[in-house]
Specification:
Layout (H helix, E strand, L loop, with lengths): L6 H9 L17 E2 L10 H18 L3 H4 L5 H12 L7 E3 L3 H15 L5 E5 L4 H13 L4 E5 L14 E7 L11 H10 L3 E5 L18 E4 L14 E4 L43 H11 L7 H23 L5 E2 L11 E5 L3 H10 L2 E2 L1 E3 L3 E5 L7 H17 L15
Parallel strand pairs: 1-11, 3-4, 3-5, 5-6, 6-7
Antiparallel strand pairs: 2-8, 7-8, 9-10, 10-13, 12-13
Helix pairs in contact: 2-8, 4-8, 5-6, 9-11
Length: about 425
């Protein structure tokens, strides 16, 4: 953004915003500026409607019959196809189930089983911790296996990929800085060395266009409670390219993944295709909330979404640096919007206190240790005026020293 706009220009940007009507589909408290959709998305009216119907009518009235009459049992596959459309996956390659952590564990085991002669997992030292915890757990179950990390064992992840590597586990967007990786290039690099790749899409699904098939990705995982607005603890998803379906083996062989789950056989026989990643009984009420949350996406042009995302984040950076640059904030995110997800991070020695002061003024972002203030921009319900007002409040907090109030230094149990 070459020049900092005034508020009249901001109003004009909102008036021209083709996604502006989408805001009315979401439930936002009056006066709240919500810049934390990259942690927990806002509830939609459709999600509440689906949840209410599933609870009061299907569970409340039809009870166990709803497994058949309401299609409960097939929901992970049906919703998987709907999520798949948003991540560039054709039908039958994505299933909604379990959590991101569990799905990482399943995908890592499946990938290593496809490369039995190899023993190394490669990942990022700066990864969201659960990815590394699960990778450590997989290594602990496989004699001779090892984990190599970017930033620890070599400066760049590409330097770690060789003929010993079975699988690369990588985040599409870094959870802290917002840096966006080149999916096609890194996937190609892994394949050149005979390795498979798993992409963590937690911070890009619903935030920007993704083309898993076009990039020739092997596996992907992600959550649905951030930009997809599925609700707290909403089920995650897992993708596997069709070419791997006949050989998928993963250790969590629960009854939902069985070829004949209602035959109640004594031994496990894997189902067909993506169903092999299913494990136990899924949380139906959460699935129904997600079903409603996905309704809005049938009307969203992902290219327009991405365009607005870049405009919002560019505007935020320009305004913060123009109005708050004298107060010690340092940009942690890439300045180039094409290399950035739908979030912006700034660092400051007192980031925690400043963020708490913002939250007290109804501007909600989040803090990531040790010194990152992170702001997520969900184009479906964040306006350009929200960005302007958030920066105005941030500047006031910094200028007046409001953040130095002792109450803002008290650490919350969940930060």
């Amino acid at each position: 953004m070459s020049a900092v706009p005034d508020f009249a220009a901001i109003e004009a940007m909102d008036a021209a915003d083709v996604l502006r009507p989408m805001r009315d589909r979401f439930i936002l408290p009056p006066g709240l500026i919500y810049l934390d959709g990259n942690s927990l998305g806002v509830a939609s009216t459709a999600a509440f409607d689906e949840l209410r119907k599933a609870a009061t009518e299907e569970w409340g009235q039809d009870l166990i019959r709803s497994w058949n009459t309401a299609g409960w049992f097939e929901m992970p596959l049906a919703l998987g196809d709907r999520v798949g459309r948003l991540i560039g996956a054709g039908a039958g390659q994505t299933v909604v189930c379990d959590t991101t952590s569990i799905n990482i564990y399943k995908a890592l085991h499946a990938a290593m089983a496809l490369r039995p002669e190899r023993s190394v997992i490669v990942s990022e030292g700066s990864s969201f911790p659960t990815d590394l915890y699960m990778a450590e757990g997989v290594v602990s179950t496989r004699p001779g296996a090892a984990l190599r990390l970017e930033g620890v064992d070599a400066p760049e992840i590409e330097d770690l990929i060789n003929s010993d590597v079975a699988v690369v586990l990588v985040n599409h967007v870094n959870y802290k800085s917002g840096e966006l990786r080149d999916m096609a290039a890194l996937t190609r690099k892994a394949h050149e060395h005979g390795a498979l790749i798993i992409w963590d899409l937690c911070h890009t699904a619903g935030a920007l266009p993704i083309d898993l098939e076009g990039a020739d990705v092997d596996f992907a995982v992600g959550c649905t409670y951030k930009y997809l607005n599925g609700g707290p603890g909403a089920p995650a998803f897992i993708y596997a390219a069709t070419r791997h379906h006949g050989d998928i083996r993963q250790p969590l062989s629960g009854w939902w993944g069985h070829a004949r789950p209602f035959a109640f056989e004594k031994h496990y026989a894997a189902g067909e295709g993506i169903r092999r990643f299913l494990c136990g009984t899924q949380p139906i009420l959460s699935l129904r909330a997600l079903k409603g949350a996905l309704d809005v996406w049938d009307e969203v042009d992902m290219t327009k979404l991405r365009e607005k995302s870049i405009r919002l984040t560019d505007l935020f950076i320009a305004l913060v640096e123009a109005k708050c640059g004298a107060y010690g904030l340092e940009l942690e995110s890439p300045r180039d919007g094409a290399r950035r997800g739908s979030q912006v991070s700034f660092s400051h020695p007192n980031s925690y206190e400043i963020m708490q002061a913002l939250i007290a003024r109804d501007v909600i972002g989040d803090f990531r240790a040790p010194s990152t203030m992170r702001f997520g921009f969900t184009p479906l319900y964040v306006s350009y005026a929200d960005v302007w007002q958030a920066v105005e409040i941030l500047e006031e907090i910094l200028r007046t020293g409001t953040w130095q109030d002792a109450r803002f230094a008290v650490r919350a149990a969940v930060t």
